[in-house]
Amino acid sequence: MDVGKLFQLPTVSSSAVNKRKWGAPPPGAAPAAVEDAERDEGVTRPAPEPKRTRVDEFEPDDGDDEEGRFFGGGLTDEQERILEIMNRNATDSAESGARAVDDVAETRQRLVQLERAIEKNQAMRLKYPDDPHRFIDSEADLDSALRALALLTTNARALYPVLLHQGSAASVVGLLAHENADMAAAAIQVLEELTDDDVVDAADEAGAAAMQALVDALLESQVLELLVSNLKRFHDTPPSSDDAAAMENYESDRQAVYHTLSVLENVVSLRPSAAEHLGRATPLLAWLLARMLRAGRLDQNQAYAAELLAILLHDNDANRAALVRVQGVDTLLQVLARYRHADPRDAEEAEFLENSVDALCAALTVRESRAQFLEAEGLELMVLLLKAKHQARGGALKVLDHALSDADGGAACAHFVEALGLRALCPLLMRPMEGKGALRAPDMEHLLGVLAALLHNLDSDSALRTRVLAKFVEQSHAKTDRLLALRAAARERVQAAEPRLAEEQAVLAAEGIESADIDALVYARRLESGLYALQQLDYVLAWLAMEDDGVRTAY
């Protein structure tokens, strides 16, 4: 039904529908903090009720028509509902425009109150430095004014520019150095809310630009350095006693550390170049490693430290090199060694183990890290993890794949064979292909990557290479038979995925995607569907056929 044609009314703009309201708390904001801020300033915002607009020209007449065809203005129930919705949207659009102006005005007022609260608190602290009771009220006012900034996240595209124009972003960053650690923690929490990527919808270009401008202003104010330096102020180690005050301080500091790591992750997500600055100009990498290594039951901050470290090392050679300077490889090996005799206790600890493995694999792309890995007996540890029947075995295969597959991995491959790595590796190759005891597909791919690296990097006439080849000849070529069976299964998976990939390719072509991008995407899908394993198997089998006459004769 063409509503505009039916009523001959202008089309309602889509931007007038579902507009975000100022009074709604931002995602992740503490409702109590928002309510306190509004109560302190005397702000009341009753929820607007839907407004029904009466259209006079459609009012019912006296009902002269006996059949009632024109009673109610001649509209059906459906038409009346449509008209009511359109009138309500038009009213809401006007109210939203007026409300946006009020939002900006109220934001300016809040920012002025924040600046005044900062100045008053500083003055009172200077005047009565040894008497906290004299400046505690000004500190409470400052806390209230600071937390009220969480309301800016309800309309980032309009209100973040106001925050930047008045220079208050730098003021919030300055509070990270406040003498009161609780005030610094409050500033950290506000920064976390302001930089949360859920604040701005991906399709909102103006909002995304406002968020990026805010992050740039924070970086100019040296927010990264202040955040990292604040980590030393918070002691998130559980107290040795059951003292209530000590437990309260511990809980407060634990939350402050968590929010700090969250702000750092938000900034790196919005400005990837900030990751290199963190590794180069701050001691964050060393702090994260020390936090991961802390003994005792895994806590939330320990798990977050591993996640953030993996993020900072991902696709960042500068941070990988910086990790070498703080002996990061040795620390990560100590973390993994904990899982030689035990599995992770829960899903959070399993994720911690996975992030630790990912961080170590990223570090091994640097030559100096590989040297530290060998020196710290990393290969020996990985062999022990392979022999242990625990969850860390999959991570050990992944680490070995990265450690041995480099172009200059000859020394590492020789070290692996000398450390009796084949005794731990070959039984995994012979595990059932399906069902209980079977390796996961990613683990099998890493195992094949290790075999390919050994055949590629070991010297052709060396005794170590002969030991590798002998494994595929013994027991009537049992392991070679397993490679051929794995190849048949991988080929079958690739062929089974072709119809689905053809449909996906047709859909992408219909959407106007360039052919080169389609080919790259489809090729990546094929790799995920078993093509990568098939390629590795062909590589290993080709080496075996070239090196061993018995393999060529038997097959």
From TrEMBL:
Ranges for the region named Disordered are 1-74
Q: Where in the cell is it found?
A: Nucleus
InterPro entries, A to Z: ARM-like, ARM-type_fold, CTNNBL1, CTNNBL1_N
Principal localisation: nucleus
Instruction: Locate the compositionally biased regions of type Basic and acidic residues.
Output: 40-57
Q: Which GO terms describe its cellular component?
A: spliceosomal complex
Q: What is this protein called?
A: Beta-catenin-like protein 1 N-terminal domain-containing protein
